[in-house]
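Hi R.,

Here's the chain you asked about this morning:
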Amino acid sequence: MNRRKFYIHSFFSKIKAALSSFPKWHLTFILILSYSTAYHLTAQPVFADPEPYPFGLTPGGTPPWTRLVDLDHDDTLEAFVRSLTLAPPDFEPQTLDYYENRGSNEAPEFVFQASYPFGLPGPSLDHFWQFVDIDGDGLDEVFFIVWGSDTPVKMRENIGTPEVPNYDTAFTINPYGIVPPVSDIDGGMADGVTPTFADIDSDGDFDLFYGGSFTNSLEDEAFYYSENIDPTCDNEDPSDDGTDPQFALPIKNPFGFTFPAGVNILHQEIFADTDCDGDLDMYMGYPPANGLYFENTGTPTDPDFSTLPNNIPFAANFGNFVDIGGDGDLDFVSASSFFENISPPFPEPEAGFYFVQDGLTFNFIDTSSEFVTEWIWDFGDSTSSEEQHPVHTYAEGGIYEVCLTAWTPCKSHELCQVIQVMTGTRESRLEADFQLFPNPSGDLLQVELEAKEPLQNPEIILFDLLGTPVRHWSFPLNRTVIRERLNLSGLSSGIYLLKVQANDKFLAKQFLKR
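And the predicted structure, written out as tokens:
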């Protein structure tokens, strides 16, 4: 028997023996881009007992690979399910079924549509694995597991449109400079190579991890990794935006990984931030239905996987991590089972900020709660920022609604304030002690102002969020103190800005009417 036939026989014998002892694998995949700062709340997510055949998915065989992906860019995840017949001599995939989602991402309702859609190949030793927009063109390519010995990385390019995907009829072999792992023992390539792409270092492009197996011995089994780099200059994707990937030669066990002892059968890895700490953790699946969880104890930009793995109740390469129910954590979904994430709730973010004004320029200072990792500002003049403490200059004075959305990796909270942008100098502002209460108010609002100088014909003007005056009060007498209870009945609930002006000067405060 020649070397290739021996490896194919050995490779599939191991797979068949492992799967025959456990007829159904339950596994998963998702790709999540990580955030800028990490925090650690729990060492390992906790999952409930499985619910079988969830959300209308009906696998045609076992084991059913399941991928959820928004392939047509309608903001709803569709499902692809492929089942494998592990019977000699061909070991060919049995079905590839496509399901549309008639529900939502939080409450999916999958309905079968077609088999082998969008030009995806029929039964063969090439088995789809990951949909990923590897070159940043807005179209998801598909990468494959190749059931065989000494296998390359295979890709089908999406030559359709964002709304109507269509896959090239020919494979691209080892694209973007990919070189599959080679054995330290005999120089042979890995068998059943399974390419998984994830932005493990948060630099804006996808890096590559290789699953698979060497069938000769345990000595060369490892986690193999290729960084997405520019080999000619600065060790980054030469496009600097993820649109021109180039991959370095694979290295063994990066980031402190220790390959599990005794595993020398097909292993596959996926990445997801299931503990909601801002970095990508790794899940490993291998037969028969074994799963391991590797926590990333580093940061999104400097991963560290030196902590030994823990067992999990499913093998995580046959499905997806998705937030079912909209509760902010990632659950596990495959065609054969659903595992709800029942970990303790993550802290709710609370957005907060104040500002310091200098003419048209505002220094916004973030005071959001702990664990916030991303800030999105809307300054109310069609401009925005993602800085934590931005400085913004308005083109002209007026009333603007400024909104801050504060994000943890799993949840968000928005806070909006109405501000008055004053175009004059500090001398145009009233010097006074100024209070509004209660805030939030009902139909009555107490205004108290004690000025440093007599006020000539003071006025109170109330503006809505659009800057439209909705109420006006005038006081003809000169005075230094205003104590008035304003009747707000008839006004809708919402945020208002109250402006007091006199002597060509003014002060303004916002309040909420319930």
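The first helix runs from residue 3 to 20.

Let me know if you need anything else.
M.
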